[in-house]
Design goal:
60 residues; 3 helices; globular; mainly alpha
């Protein structure tokens, strides 16, 4: 029950930030908004949703 609500919040934060936020930034944003959630939970739910943050750096 809590996971489904968190998945919606995670997807909302992810989409509103140009689909570049990773687990750490989403976790920090959710905690700023007042949703007490563990980072490992955000990571797990992001894996279930199939979303990942943008990877910066050189492409080789």
């Amino acid at each position: 029950m809590r996971d489904t609500a968190l998945k919606e919040l995670i997807h909302e934060v992810y989409a509103s930030n140009y689909r570049v936020y990773g687990a750490r930034k989403i976790w920090r944003e959710l905690n700023r908004q007042g949703h007490a959630v563990a980072r490992c939970t955000v990571e797990r739910l992001m894996r279930e949703l199939g979303i990942a943050g943008a990877v910066r750096g050189n492409r080789t």
